[in-house]
Amino acid sequence: MELWYSENQTDNVKFSMRVKETLFSKKSPFQQIDVIDTYDFGRVLVIDGWTMITEKDEFIYHEMITHVPMTVNPNIKNVLVIGAGDGGTVRELTRFPSIEHIDMVELDEEVVNAAFEHLPFTSSKLKDEKVSLYFEDGIKFVEGLENKYDLIIVDSTDPIGPGEGLFTVEFYKNCYKALTENGILVNQGESPYYDMNRREMKRSNKKLKEIFPICEVYQYVIPTYPSGYWFFGFASKKLHPVKDYNEEYYKSLNLKDRYYNSEVHKAAFALPNYVKELLEE
Amino acid sequence: MELWYSENQTDNVKFSMRVKETLFSKKSPFQQIDVIDTYDFGRVLVIDGWTMITEKDEFIYHEMITHVPMTVNPNIKNVLVIGAGDGGTVRELTRFPSIEHIDMVELDEEVVNAAFEHLPFTSSKLKDEKVSLYFEDGIKFVEGLENKYDLIIVDSTDPIGPGEGLFTVEFYKNCYKALTENGILVNQGESPYYDMNRREMKRSNKKLKEIFPICEVYQYVIPTYPSGYWFFGFASKKLHPVKDYNEEYYKSLNLKDRYYNSEVHKAAFALPNYVKELLEE
């Protein structure tokens, strides 16, 4: 018998991985959480039928969501991470010595439990002494905060289900207030290829532009997400992700990265015409 | 009833598109050729069960395979194209006024016939007066030629089946001789993600490096190929794809491109660490 997991990437597109075994399957109060072991991608976290991370290529996502902001401002001390229950974003952040504290707010404790048990490669730093874990709604967590974080990372699912409120103007306004004067917000910025993702990419970028003076998107290639072509949003009060990029600082850290390097940082902001047109429409 | 076309991207990975109808299906002396109409990708050319081009994203492939070499040398007059029976590469080349003549050598006339009938969006320039079509083996076609072409584009399938001979040292040597002193060879350079493609990407690059003094690879994202993350090889006698890039020349052409622009050209050569490591192994 062959076991396959198929993700319905659109109504008319399926991506399927051959499965060795199911390691974890649980319906939490918020969502269906599964961890499977696959032949080509190693362990895979699936939430509500959508691939969240795979052991094979999570390094791409997690290096890009963290290294780009962290190298634009070498003085980032306090970070808020919303979502990211698998722990990969926190793992990457703890590699930067400037960081004093990370607050991580994940709605669903069961995701973190599954990660502790089955995804040691991403969850390894969630118990680091610099990290405080909160199992709460990130939307409420940022309400009323002022001048507190140098960096906020919104490591969310798509804007359907529990992730929806993380794509609203009100939420982005609260993030703006919660940021320090050199503050940067990085968010999961969707994809320009399939219609549903295109729409959300455009909407999210438009809303951020209403609030932040500097607002760019940057690309990375992660083959296990629909189309493989995905973006993060970079919204900032003062610092520009390319003009203020601190290459010397990055080199001084001597990190052994698998995807990110200084050329990749700059190239990530070079957008194909069809992506530029989508954002300018 | 729902019709689906599934590509077995590896033994353990399938990519599936929902199909409206099959427009063409024929076994030629060389291979099985199908053209299908799909919901999300428009018309799709499939050879021996592998996706060759889709109406939705062929522009990415065809702009990148042509615009990168054409803008590095504004004096390209004579071009040889091997493979590319759908016609997309020739369509893009004819947009550059420097070109005087294109020889296109496609092994399988049936692919071109299918393209004329069902893929008008790529085959539109195959009858251009600057184009000579040869239905021959490209490997034999280049044997014994000297100082004839300013650019050779090897627009091949993977190195299995009829495409295999287009990935040999002997073939690359013949291409070198067939090129003029500023000659450039661009080839389908595979992908660094799945094992089979990784192996071929490395092998092809290694062989080209034995022959050409300048040898780089450049990336593009085409979601309908396995992993979505693909490369072309750029092998050249004298001109460097980034140092000799002629941005002013490109701008003067005023082409309305959908993917390519000057920033994309340069960024295409900025490789993630895992790709660099693969090529340096």
From TrEMBL, chains A, B:
Instruction: Please name the pathway.
Output: Amine and polyamine biosynthesis; spermidine biosynthesis; spermidine from putrescine: step 1/1
| EC number in record | 2.5.1.16
- The chain positions of domain PABS read 2-237
Residues reported in the UniProt entry to bind spermidine: 62, 86, 155-158
Q: Which reaction is catalysed here? A: S-adenosyl 3-(methylsulfanyl)propylamine + putrescine = S-methyl-5'-thioadenosine + spermidine + H(+)
InterPro entries, from UniProt?
Answer: PABS (IPR030374), SAM-dependent_MTases_sf (IPR029063), Spermi_synthase (IPR001045), Spermidine_synt_N (IPR035246), Spermidine_synt_N_sf (IPR037163)
Q: Name one Pfam family in it.
A: Spermine_synt_N
Regions annotated as coiled coil: none
Q: List residues binding S-methyl-5'-thioadenosine.
A: 31, 106, 137-138, 162
Please list the GO terms describing molecular function: spermidine synthase activity
PANTHER family reported for this sequence? SPERMIDINE SYNTHASE, SPERMIDINE/SPERMINE SYNTHASE
Which HAMAP family does the record cross-reference, listed alphabetically?
A: Spermidine_synth
What does this gene product do? Answer: Catalyzes the irreversible transfer of a propylamine group from the amino donor S-adenosylmethioninamine (decarboxy-AdoMet) to putrescine (1,4-diaminobutane) to yield spermidine.
Q: Subunit details for this protein?
A: Homodimer or homotetramer.
| Full protein name | Polyamine aminopropyltransferase
Please name the taxonomic classification of the source: Bacteria, Bacillati, Bacillota, Clostridia, Eubacteriales
